[in-house]
Each structure stands twice: as C-alpha cells, then as structure tokens.
Amino acid sequence: SQHRPPARRTLRVGLLSACVLALAAAAAIGARAVNLARDTLPDAPSTAVVHQPRQPATVLSGQPGVIAAGVARLLFARAPLVVVANSSDKASMTQAARLARSAHAPLLLAGPSGGDAPGVTALRAAVRALRPQLVLAVGLDAAALSAELPKTARIITDPADLPPGLRKVRLRTAPLRTVAVLVHSSGADGPAGTAARVTARAAGARIVKVLGYDPGTDPAAIVALASAKPRQVLAIGASFGSPATLATRVAVAESGMQLPGGGQVLFPDRMIVALYGHPDAPALGVLGEQDLAASIARARRMAAPYRSLTKVPVVPAFEIIATVAEASAGPCGCYSYETPVSLLRPWVRRATAAGMYVILDLQPGRDNLLAQAKVYKSLLKLPNVGLALDPEWKLQPGQLPLQQIGSVSITEVNSVVTWLARLTSRYHLPQKLLELHEFRLSMIQNEQQLDTRHTDLAIVINMDGQGTQGDKQQTWEAVVGAAPRGVYFGWKNFLVKDHPMATPGLTMARTPEPVLISYE
Questions:
Q1: Which of 190, 203, 229, 419 is 20 to 30 A from 480 in CA distance terms?
Q2: Can you tell me the distance from the alpha carbon of 74 to that of 51, in angstroms, rounded to the nearest whole number?
C-alpha cells in the first residue's frame, strides 16, 4: 500500500507527458506545414497564365460561386494563388477582395457546405483547373473547406502566412486588354459582381458597368465599349440575354454612335416631337412654311413644352415627305414624286448637327414601298434617320390620289420591316424608327401579322386622324385596340384641321402615352 500513491503519480505524469508530447507533435506538424509552404514556394514573385475566352460573347449565370468560378476559368489557365471568400459574410468578402486585388489573384467564393451543390462543384473544378500552389481562405473553416477542394489543395487562413512570392503575382502572358467584363451596376458590389471584377482586373481585362442589361441604353457604357473595342465579352447575369444577343448589342455599342438624347435604343428612353411636311411645299405641312434654319428653330419651340410633361429627353425632329403622291402619273407612271437625295441631304445634315432626329415619309402612289425605301438607303444608313410609311397614299391599279383612302398589304409592309432591320444590323446602327401612319383600320391589311420581332427597329403606329378631339380620341382607341403587340404609338396634331388642336398637356393625356408627336 505504501507504493500505490507513487504509482498513481507515475501514471498521471505519464499521461501528462503523453499529452504534452502529442500537442508538441501536432504543433510540430503545423509548424512543418507552414515551413513546408515557406520552403517549397518561391520567394520571388510567382507568375500566372491568362488566356482568351474561346467564344466572342459569354453570359454567366447561376449562384455567385458558379459565376466566380466561371470567370476565373475563362480568364486564367493557371494561378499560383487563389483567394476563396465566404460569400455569405460581407466583412469576409471585403477583406478577401482587398487581399486578392493586392496579390493579383482570382477571387473564388464558397458558402455553407452543400455537398455537390453547384457552387461547391464549380469551386472544386476551378481549383483543380487553376492548380494553385496555395489557397488563401478568408472567413472560412480550413478543415471544412479542405473537404470540398481537391486533396492537393494547400490551404491557409492567415494572410501573414503568405510566402513573399505569392503576395503579388505577375502575369506570364500579356494582360487580357481585349476582354471586357460587363456587370450590371445594381449587382456590381454583390458577391458575384465583386468576384468577377477582382478576377477580371487580376487578368488585365476591362470592367464595364452597365446601368441596364443592354449596353446600348447606357451612354457611358457605349463610350467605354467604343474605346475598348473588345474581342471577347463576358456578361454577369442571365438578364444580359443569350450570347448571340449580347454579341449583337456589343457590336452596336462598339460603333460609338448614339441617338439624339443619348443611347442607342429609341423608346421608351426618349420622346420625339416632329414637324411634318416637305421643304419645298408649304401646302404639304408646317415644315415647308419657313427656311431650314427657321424650321430647326420652330421644331425646337414645338418640342419645348413637352419637356415638363415627361421624364425622358424630348428630341425635336423633321418628318420629311420624301416621296409625294401626285395626281399625274409622272415619268415612272406611279403617281408619286421621288424627292432627290441631294435636296434632302442638307436638311438631314443640318438637323443632325442640331441634335435632331429625321424621319423620311413615303407616299408611294402606285409604286412599291420597298423600292422607294431603297432610294433613300444612303440617308437611312445614318444613325438618326428613320422611315415612315403612309398607307393612305398607297394606290391600287385604277385609283388616284385624293379620290379614296389607300391601303397596303401586310406582306408589303413586312418586306420593308425585314429590309430596314437588316440594314440597321449590317451597319451596326442604333435602333431605327419605323413609323406606320393609320387612321382607319382598313389602311393596313391583316395588321396583326406585322413582324415585330426585330429588336433593331422601334415600330410606331401614328394615329394621324384629324377633326374634333372627340373624333380623334375614338380613332385613337380603335387604332390602339387593333394594334399587334410590340409596337409604340404616336399622335398627330393638325394646326388647321383639328377643332381645336390639342395642347401638349392634352396630347400627352393618352393611354398608352405617345412616344412620337407630329405637327402638320
């Protein structure tokens, strides 16, 4: 019994010694792990390899982790360091973004452990593809993260443990200055937007913030893309549309051309107020009642009262009757006079310099609308020149102007739609106006078959009936009610033939609100 207490003390000392040894061993292992990283990773700056995306346009969507991994893999072939942030913690995101920017490293995202959730799968695939020498985890548990990453991934959580060679990575290949990453302004500071921006900067790509999902609606984005002229574009978010749609919109933005009032999309981003008529014929409308300089001044005066009635820019315009229906057959036998382009060009040039829009109106007589439109192709190739079709003056064989109300088949109208849309697309022009005059439903046959699929065009049905305000309102309701989907509406005021003519306030008191107001 005298020997038992010492035996217990010996046992306790032995257990304590074992624990101390185990802790010491664990510490030694940890020290060796840090020393291993320090010993095997270079002190000189490491290099990353970037590469061009294969497709000219890519739209990335899904969970933030999926987007972040997608951007990294599209821009980097290899990255010696990657930073992984806890996407659900704002402080961790802020710290991780700062560290990744400082080290010129891609920023990946992780959240709560989710097995084979898309974000985890994307993170694992990105780390495997980038083959980093070290993973810096911010706001994450290293043990939990290691279970989600390839076994070869070496993880640290303390930025102080970064070897000197990984504190600022260099690019072995040239920066991706011909690549642009588009981020919607509302999501630019969210997890996906932040990761995309940090990774893009690390690769040397350009970041373009867009107010909407169409860069053509944002004047600043147009300027940025026109300056950069990127070969490849990545967009963050499914709302940017398909890759084909994105590529088309970027091509137009790269042209740098903008509409009066800014941007490349007509409506509802602006309202047009136009003087209607022919420069050489006062009897055909107010446009011919004064010379060119006075017409510009008058158009501005007509547009001015509308600025207090709408939140969008109000653009003064000329609606010029380019082909004029005539009582005689003329040399072409078509009862329509084609105004020479040389006569119209000064009006278009001066209106353009004054920040105005120009609409060329066709009164075809017995001629074909598409054939007449092609006469003015050189003017329609300009970004601020649109086209108007006036079925009232479309005559059938045996008919004469002013003896009946004309009409046009939807087939003939759609032939103009197709041609004008292709012209706009081919020359990467801003969205182009196609105006259809109508005050009787019989004027456009089978109107519901109007082709409204072309985003290159903004189609406006202009109610150009005249008379009392009661009669005009009834006509308006009939025209609006019969119109196909995908069109906008306009309203014409007649200075002499309306009883009385509507004020700007009454003109705008329509449902839906008109985007085009013309005065004759």
A1: 419
A2: 7
